[in-house]
Write a structure and sequence with these properties.
The structure is a single chain. This protein is about 40% helix and about 20% strand. The protein has ten helices and 15 strands. The strands form four sheets. A five-stranded mixed beta sheet has the order 13-12-11-14-15, with helices on one face. The chain has a four-stranded mixed beta sheet with strand order 4-1-7-8, with helices on one face. About 40% of the residues are buried.
């Protein structure tokens, strides 16, 4: 049987897999006061888990007195996840959503810490408290299901029961995260939850949850770059390379149907985006520059939106000055484009040659000009 991981080790492991990039620091001071029982005379450390690195950054430390009291502080960066730990022992996680936080904990049972002054931290703690036993149950059920012993009807029945237990545990975790992500009002807590949820929500549900979070907090560095990293490590559309582009017919803003096949004879850059997708909007200036440079060299662009609000879609087209043709069935992740192209996250794009063959997928904006120059000589 797999031994359940201690809470802080598991949290750190899953967080570190998604640490991405820092934003601009401010000059506010974070102050953390509290009591750590059963650790008198030991050193307590305050560390930030920066988006830029998988290594924690220790920002302050102190030696606990006989009562276990401590007072730590730091010039904090943006809102992010922090860790409080006793040297040589486990720790606890919190979010610096406020400037002063109070923590009471017991080094002998640190998972049961009490925190005040930080609503986001209490929310994150509640999620993690619910997550750990469910995760351990799923992990044990998965291990049992992967180990089929014996043959015959009795063994088959036992194996089937183990599979059902594994799937039930996975559904329980999926529901936990779906409920939490739908209600949580703090961006960093959403980021933390998305990191834990990646294995338990299906790709479309996870991508939709991330996009929803980005629509509320488009400038949160962890959320923004979480999507970039996801797209870069799981390249969508590779199954379409060097194959005929799937036919797709969607209406433009006036309701006129536009078919991908109607661009045959020209190079076509299909840009899949949405007005609520912050990374999509961020790369629009590069796409516009490419359009202006290559439009006279037999290049057309077709914007395929996963919007559901027509007004927001049209306003984004005007605001970002996107002069090419645009289509959308305004069905969000139920759009025909999702199934046609296998879209799991935005932004997503395809470069199609004049014969209708896909030559490139998911071209990053940093490489767009070089890619077009390669083909449109």
């Amino acid at each position: 049987m797999i031994r359940p991981l201690p809470p802080i080790h598991l949290a750190t492991l899953l967080l570190c897999s998604l640490l991405l990039a820092c934003g601009t620091p401010d000059t506010a001071t974070l102050q953390v006061n509290g009591i750590m029982k059963n650790a008198a005379g030991k050193k307590i450390m305050l560390a930030e888990l920066p988006y830029a690195s998988s290594a924690r950054l220790v920002v302050d430390s102190a030696t606990l007195d006989s009562s276990g009291r401590f007072q730590l502080q730091s010039v904090q960066s943006q809102e992010s996840v922090y860790q409080l730990f006793v040297v040589g022992g486990p720790g606890l996680l919190f979010i610096n959503d406020v400037a002063q936080i109070n923590i009471e904990a017991d080094a002998a049972d640190i998972a049961r810490f009490r925190i005040s002054g930080s609503p986001a931290s209490r929310s994150m703690q509640a999620l993690y408290t619910a997550f750990v036993p469910s995760f351990n149950q799923w992990q044990q059920a998965r291990h049992a299901a992967d180990t089929k012993a014996g043959t015959g009807p009795q063994a088959d029945s036992l194996y089937s029961a183990r599979l059902q237990q594994r799937d039930a545990a996975a559904r329980q975790l999926s529901q936990l995260f779906s409920t939490y992500l739908a209600k949580e009002k703090n961006a960093t807590a959403q980021y933390f939850a998305l990191g834990l949820a990646r294995e338990f929500l299906d790709a479309q549900a996870w991508a939709q949850a991330l996009d929803t979070a980005l629509s509320q907090w488009p400038n949160h560095p962890g959320l923004r770059l979480m999507q970039v990293k996801t797209v870069s490590t799981q390249v969508q559309g590779t199954h379409l390379l060097n194959k005929p582009v799937p036919e797709l017919v969607l209406p433009d803003s006036s309701g006129r149907p536009i078919a991908v096949s109607s661009f045959r004879g020209r190079w076509l850059f299909i840009d899949c985006w949405a007005s609520w997708c912050a990374p999509c909007r961020a790369q629009n200036p590069q796409i516009l520059a490419a359009y202006r440079r290559y439009n006279r060299r037999n290049l057309s662009i077709l914007g395929v939106s996963l919007d559901k609000d027509k007004a927001a879609w049209q306003q984004a087209i005007v605001a970002d000055t996107l002069p090419w043709q645009h289509v959308s069935d305004l069905k969000y992740w139920d759009s025909k484009a999702v199934n046609s192209f296998g879209i799991t996250a935005l932004p997503f794009n395809l470069l199609v040659d004049p014969t209708g063959t896909v030559r490139a997928v998911n071209v990053p904006d940093s490489a767009l000009d070089a890619t077009l120059a390669k083909y449109l000589q």
